[in-house]
């Protein structure tokens, strides 16, 4: 691809950026928390149909997925869960096929009064777009769509098959991405524009979600000593798991990528529910937890370590010793992933990156996870993850930096053209 063709594509991104931001704003405005992603999938389906893509929009059947590698248990109502894939089929086969994927699910906004502006009323100010999901990762998904638009606007068309995939459940199980693979979608490479600050994810953690279900013995608080407080007992278990976190971080020092980080393994007790009355010693407490694992670590083995840690802590507690807690696996059972055997797509992306940014992209050792793992681990499809800069993901006042968004859109467009090949339309 010559410099003149590259410049036509870059100019097309510039010319379409105002429309891209408008579409991004509309997308962010949809409160697509878990179980409520349908309107976002409707919007993506409409956008793909308007552009002439072949659209596959289906309801996900968990029974089709439960035996596949990387499946995480679903606990909520999944009857309306959908995946949407738009396929571009070339007139001339000359390049390599590609999956472009984004997730439309977002985490809860939390207390609305702690946001400077409403989370689902996106605002642009100071070169940033604010809103839940603006950074993670609705701007990246729409950016990928407009990267394809730019190629068309430049008078070109790709010469390889492209699947544009909008998935759900990235924030809790990953079964949306898994469903596309079960459906049969494959390509020579996958590209996911998660917000990586302009770096390429080289290695990422996996995640295990679990719930501690702790029993107590209720009594009137006036006689608290004769009861057993389930909330305090849960805290005893949390302290034990914090020690396990320390042990796993020591183990991480042997990993060639994660040894560069002080604490790549993070344990988080993220939800706690318990008790029925302020003047009653609580009889129950549930704690939803998240802990990371590194690439190459067995999920099953580390589940056993979690169970052993909790069991040992229970044995050292006066009530739990005879009333052991239960552990439920409540979401992610996801392996870590290291990008390997990806020299060809990385070389193609390197050319695009150099044209937009200059130099070569830095590697990112990522203490969160992305859907890339399914493509690389399950099917040997090299899966690149690169995207814009932003902040406050999963926090208040989440934002994406618009200058970085434009640059990543340009890099995506050039990468698609380089990897898939282009011809005059």
TrEMBL record:
Protein name: Acetylornithine deacetylase
Enzyme class at the top of the EC tree: hydrolase
Signal sequence interval, chain numbering: none
Cofactors named for this entry: Zn(2+); Co(2+)
Source organism of this protein record: Bradyrhizobium forestalis
One Gene Ontology term of the molecular function aspect: metal ion binding
Keywords carried by this UniProt record: Cobalt, Hydrolase, Metal-binding, Zinc
Family: Belongs to the peptidase M20A family.
Peptidase M20 dimerisation domain segment(s): 204-316
Keyword Oxidoreductase on entry: no
Coiled coil recorded as keyword: no
E.C. number(s) listed in UniProt: 3.5.1.16
NCBIfam families referenced in this protein's UniProt entry, alphabetically: DapE-ArgE, PRK06837.1
Domain of life assignment: Bacteria
């Amino acid at each position: 691809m010559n410099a003149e063709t590259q410049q036509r594509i870059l100019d097309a991104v510039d010319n379409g950026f105002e429309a891209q931001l408008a579409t991004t704003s509309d997308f962010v405005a949809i409160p697509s928390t878990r179980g409520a992603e349908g309107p976002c999938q409707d919007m993506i389906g409409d956008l793909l149909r308007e552009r002439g893509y072949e659209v596959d929009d289906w309801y996900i059947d968990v029974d089709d997925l439960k035996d596949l590698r990387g499946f995480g248990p679903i606990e909520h109502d999944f009857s309306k869960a959908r995946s949407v894939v738009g396929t571009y089929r070339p007139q001339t086969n000359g390049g390599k096929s590609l999956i472009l994927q984004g997730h439309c699910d977002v985490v809860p906004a939390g207390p609305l009064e702690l946001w400077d502006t409403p989370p689902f009323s996106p605002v642009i100010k100071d070169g940033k777009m604010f809103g839940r999901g603006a950074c993670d990762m609705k701007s990246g998904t729409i950016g990928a769509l407009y990267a394809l638009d730019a190629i068309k606007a430049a008078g070109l068309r790709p010469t390889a098959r492209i699947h544009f995939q909008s998935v759900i459940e990235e924030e809790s199980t990953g079964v949306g991405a898994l469903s596309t693979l079960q459906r049969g979608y494959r390509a020579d490479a996958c590209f996911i524009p998660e917000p990586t600050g302009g770096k390429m994810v080289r290695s990422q953690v996996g995640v295990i979600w679990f719930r501690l279900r702790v029993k107590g013995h209720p009594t009137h608080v006036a006689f608290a000593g004769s009861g057993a407080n389930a909330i305090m007992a849960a805290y005893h278990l949390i302290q034990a798991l914090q020690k396990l976190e320390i042990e796993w971080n020591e183990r991480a020092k042997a990993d060639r990528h994660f040894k560069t980080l002080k604490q790549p393994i993070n344990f988080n007790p993220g939800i706690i529910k318990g008790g029925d009355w302020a003047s009653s010693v609580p009889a129950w407490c549930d704690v939803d937890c998240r802990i990371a694992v590194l690439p190459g670590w067995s999920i099953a083995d580390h589940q056993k370590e979690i169970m052993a840690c909790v069991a040992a802590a229970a044995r050292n507690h006066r009530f739990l010793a005879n009333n052991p807690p239960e552990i439920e696996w409540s979401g992610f059972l996801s392996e870590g992933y290291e990008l390997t055997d990806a020299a060809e797509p990385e070389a193609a992306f390197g050319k695009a990156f150099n044209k937009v940014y200059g130099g070569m992209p830095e590697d990112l050792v990522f203490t969160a996870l992305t859907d890339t793992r399914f493509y690389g681990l399950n099917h040997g499809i090299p899966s690149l993850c690169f995207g814009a800069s932003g902040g406050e993901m999963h926090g208040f006042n989440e934002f994406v930096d618009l200058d970085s968004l434009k640059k990543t859109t340009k890099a995506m467009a050039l990468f698609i053209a380089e990897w898939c090949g282009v011809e005059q339309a």
